[in-house]
């Protein structure tokens, strides 16, 4: 039992180190190959092809107030990689040169404007105030940076009692082995 708890404790410490490194060193996960930018870009490409993927992307974009996948301030341009939203494919459809409605800036108490992203991918577009422009990985990084100390404090608050219980479990095993040796 104490060995399993010790392994969990070590894994939590490694996860805590990753969160701290990710929040203070830009590009840390990209350099070690743990950056999901390519997977997110693939999700953007297949947005209309899979309803589950569409719901996933919409949920992330609404939760993080972002648009697109990349770790940049102009992540909304990632939607040019999707054939339905792309401006350059020559295919004309109602969504050409647009972004999904989940990219729209939500104002408290206002009705949802599903047309806010219409035509924002055109080269001459200058009014981007109706949509979130930063990519979702940039939004995720911002949330982690803003909440690093809250996460750190919560994890430390969990790790201290957990370390105490590992110590108690090891002590109990030692006491049991001492008693068994007396038999």
Automatic annotation (TrEMBL):
Main location as per UniProt: membrane
Lineage: Eukaryota, Metazoa, Spiralia, Lophotrochozoa, Mollusca
Name of the protein this chain belongs to: Tetraspanin
Source taxon at top rank: Eukaryota
Subcellular location: Membrane
Cellular component terms (Gene Ontology): plasma membrane
InterPro entries cross-referenced by the UniProt entry: Tetraspanin/Peripherin, Tetraspanin_EC2_sf
Segments passing through the bilayer: 7-25, 149-173
PANTHER family hit by this protein: TETRASPANIN (PTHR19282), TETRASPANIN 26A, ISOFORM B-RELATED (PTHR19282:SF431)
Keywords from the UniProt entry: Membrane, Transmembrane, Transmembrane helix
Membrane topology according to the record: Multi-pass membrane protein
């Amino acid at each position: 039992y104490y060995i399993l708890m010790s392994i969990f404790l070590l894994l939590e410490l490694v996860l805590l180190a990753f969160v701290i490194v990710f929040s203070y060193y830009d590009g840390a996960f990209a350099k070690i190959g743990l950056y999901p930018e390519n997977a997110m870009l693939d999700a953007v490409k297949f947005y209309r092809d899979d309803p589950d993927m569409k719901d996933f992307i919409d949920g992330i974009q609404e939760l993080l107030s972002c648009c697109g996948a990349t770790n940049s301030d102009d992540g909304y341009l990632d939607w040019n990689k999707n054939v339905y939203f792309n401006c350059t494919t020559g295919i004309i459809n109602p969504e050409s040169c647009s972004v999904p409605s989940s990219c729209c800036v939500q104002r408290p108490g206002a009705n949802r404007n599903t047309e806010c992203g219409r035509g924002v991918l055109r080269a001459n577009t200058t009014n981007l105030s109706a949509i979130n422009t930063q990519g979702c990985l940039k939004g995720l990084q911002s949330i982690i940076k803003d909440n690093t100390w809250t996460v750190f404090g919560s994890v430390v608050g969990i790790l201290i009692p957990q370390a105490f219980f590992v110590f108690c479990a090891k002590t109990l095993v030692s006491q049991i082995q001492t008693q068994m040796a007396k038999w």
